[in-house]
C-alpha cells in the first residue's frame, strides 16, 4: 500500500469513527433532558468536555487531510491521541450516565 493510500484509508477510518462518536455524544446529550437537576449539571459538564475533545479531533483530522505525504505520519500520533481522549471520555460518560 502506498503512503498516500494508507493516509487516505486512515483518514476515512477516523472520519467514520468520528461520525459514530458524534452520534453517541448526541445520545448522551439527549439524556441531559431526562436527568435530575444534579445529574443534569454533571452531565452537561461532561457533554461540554466531549464537545471540546470532538472539536480537537476534528481539527486534527482536518490537519491530517491537508498534510503532505511526509508530514502525515507526524500528525498521525496526534490523531491517535485525540481519538483515544475522545473514546475514553465517551466511555466514561456511558458508564456514569448510561
From TrEMBL:
Entry keywords, A to Z: Coiled coil
Domain of life: Bacteria
UniProt keyword Coiled coil present: yes
Coiled-coil annotated spans: 11-67
Name of the protein: Coiled coil domain-containing protein
Organism: Lutimaribacter pacificus
Amino acid at each position: 500500500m502506498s503512503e498516500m493510500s494508507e493516509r487516505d484509508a486512515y483518514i476515512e477510518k477516523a472520519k467514520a469513527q468520528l461520525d459514530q462518536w458524534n452520534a453517541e455524544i448526541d445520545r448522551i446529550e439527549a439524556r441531559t433532558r431526562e436527568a435530575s437537576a444534579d445529574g443534569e449539571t454533571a452531565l452537561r459538564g461532561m457533554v461540554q468536555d466531549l464537545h471540546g475533545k470532538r472539536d480537537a479531533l476534528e481539527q486534527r483530522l482536518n490537519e491530517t487531510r491537508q498534510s503532505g505525504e511526509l508530514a502525515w505520519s507526524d500528525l498521525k500520533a496526534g490523531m491517535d491521541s485525540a481519538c483515544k481522549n475522545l473514546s475514553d471520555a465517551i466511555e466514561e460518560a456511558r458508564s456514569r450516565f448510561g
